[in-house]
Amino acid sequence: MEKNKIDALNKAFQDKIDNEIKIEPKDYMPDAYRKTLIRQISQHAHSEIVGQLPEANWVTRAPNLRRKAVLLAKIQDEAGHGLYLYSAVETLGADREQTIDDLHEGIAKYSSIFNYPTLTWADMGTVGWLVDGAAIMNQVPLCRCSYGPYARAMVRVCKEESFHQRQGFEVVTQLAKGTPEQKAMAQDSLNRWWWPALMMFGPNDADSTHTAQSMEWKIKRHTNDELRQMFVDATVPQAELIGLTIPDKDLKFNEETGHYDFGEIDWDEFWQVVKGYGPCNEERVAARKKAKEDGLWVREAANAYAEKRAARNKKAS
Amino acid sequence: MTKQEALFEYLLRKADDSLILGHRLSEWCGHGPILEEDIAITNIALDLIGQATELYKYAAEVEDKGRDEDDLAFLRIEREYKNVLLVEQTNGDFGKTMIRQLFFDHFEHLLYEELMNSKDERIAAIATKTIKEIKYHIKHSSEWTIRLGDGTEESHNRVQKSVRDLSRFTKELFYQDEVDQILIAEGIIPDVSKFKVEYDKNIKAILDEATLELPNEKWQLDGGRKGVHSEHLGYLLTELQYMQRTYPGMKW
Amino acid sequence: MNKKEWPLWEVFIRSKQGLSHKHVGSLRAPDAEMAVNNARDVYTRRSEGISIWVVESANVVASDPSEAGPLYEPANSKAYRHPTFYEVPEGIKHM
């Protein structure tokens, strides 16, 4: 295509975005927009799928029947959310299994938070409360994302996730008002998850390579730092209410700004884990890879059967 | 044995079947052969844990000794669990899990169809809800058995081996003793021996379509209903009971 | 390794009797029966539906968005297809 025609298409595309008109799968879109979406949505999908593992770690040890059912339903939702998101990726011409292979080869990333281990039952509470809480902060604005299939998937995800954070907070609350042993378990869990949860919003705005372009394309609606601040402001009073202490000596309400000031994140740790050197990176990817490899014969068998049956039906007709 | 004792024992047996199988299926969560199947297996696990919860609740009421459904599910010793041996067998590969499910689902289907007519209203109500779930389970395990049996050479060999390994636990599904006789006489449960032929026929129909065969050997095991289990159950209970045993008496 | 993956299916759900089936997303399945089973598990976990349609994505024929102008805009100028185009004298009810 000649250059001025492409320029015109690009302008029409950006006009649509500026006017809040959604982009749909077969519409013209610049390559970079498509690539950014494929990267972001598949990364999001991988996070849901890998995110099943730290919680699945406690399914067989859940303390009572109600908690067991709730936890299973929550993890199942995560698989569902991964699937909705992979569906959105496929509308962009990417192949789901290829993006999954990229994850297994270490080419594609997922949220670093899932590289931390779940060591006690309290972590089932904290993960729901903080990790899902942070995820919701990220995801609610994505319901208005400029790409139609992604926005629609996120509407569904957000609707279903509303119970996830609540059940987590319920677990933590139950511990916080329980025996001293239970309360200590909750506090220890908060101590371990607080900072990684803050890291979930990504690097500071000044160091974020993708933010500006993503905001112009309305894939993103808020910067990393804005979302992080919203999360801190929302979460600190919740911790206070149930008598737990946020592990940050610099945390203080700022009367002037109306927001909480908080301490510096350990960015070395953040980059370590992103690069693959977190406590569970190896195990998480290995587990997903194993599931896919162990399932190969099952998927092949179903394909073979479908082919045989189609051939039989053809013969019969 | 009084009617109340028999009813309590029967409810425990069926609740344990559902709990232990639900526990086994929940081990697949996050590790299924494909995402869609991960979700499907978890659905079935959730149905089973839901069934177990209802049955334990009723059992606790029948017993009337101040225990609740969680006490029954989590705080008995190994010899007091009364599930059939089939459900505690390890998951193995996906095919083994499906065959275990096939043998179980077909029995449950016939049983719960009858339990809907139980003279015990509570059991009839539980059965009416449960039968809808089972109808889906039976479709799921039957369709998978056919696909794996009549799929590739590898899949055929794998599931054929699982059929051979697991068929020795099927007769126990029809185990009956004094507990059953008391409840049959009261019209609370059916005499399951009357649908053994139908069960065999239904299983054979699926296996035929799947090009699979039952072994000729008639060797069968039982013991679960009396609390004599395979070695697998102890490890399963170790995980299941970990929290309740480590932190006695706490609320979660 | 055989890289052939299950085909993609589009899923349509009727949320209640009296409404049309609506597109909700897609999934992978080896055949139509499994696609319906999977759709039930994936897309109706919260009683969202009472009827499911699945169609292999490869069989969906779509209109070309660059032709959206010629396809749909001519209808915009045909306001006489809408009831509000017509004047009804005051006092007339039920029309």
Automatic annotation (TrEMBL), chain A:
Signal peptide: none annotated. One of its GO terms (molecular function) is phenylacetyl-CoA 1,2-epoxidase activity. GO terms for biological process: phenylacetate catabolic process. GO terms for cellular component: cytosol. It comes from the Bacteria. Coiled coil: none annotated. NCBIfam families: PA_CoA_Oxy1. This is 1,2-phenylacetyl-CoA epoxidase subunit A. It comes from Brumimicrobium aurantiacum.
UniProtKB/TrEMBL annotation, chain B:
It comes from the Bacteria. Pfam families: PaaA_PaaC. InterPro entries: Aromatic_CoA_ox/epox (IPR052703), Ferritin-like (IPR012347), Ferritin-like_SF (IPR009078), PaaA_PaaC (IPR007814), PaaC (IPR011882). GO terms for biological process: phenylacetate catabolic process. GO terms for cellular component: cytosol. PANTHER family: 1,2-PHENYLACETYL-COA EPOXIDASE, SUBUNIT C (PTHR30458:SF0), PHENYLACETIC ACID DEGRADATION PROTEIN PAA (PTHR30458). This is Phenylacetate-CoA oxygenase subunit PaaI. It comes from Brumimicrobium aurantiacum. The lineage of its organism: Bacteria, Pseudomonadati, Bacteroidota, Flavobacteriia, Flavobacteriales.
Automatic annotation (TrEMBL), chain C:
Pfam families: PaaB (PF06243). It comes from the Bacteria. InterPro entries: PaaB, PaaB_sf. This is 1,2-phenylacetyl-CoA epoxidase subunit B. It comes from Brumimicrobium aurantiacum. The lineage of its organism: Bacteria, Pseudomonadati, Bacteroidota, Flavobacteriia, Flavobacteriales.
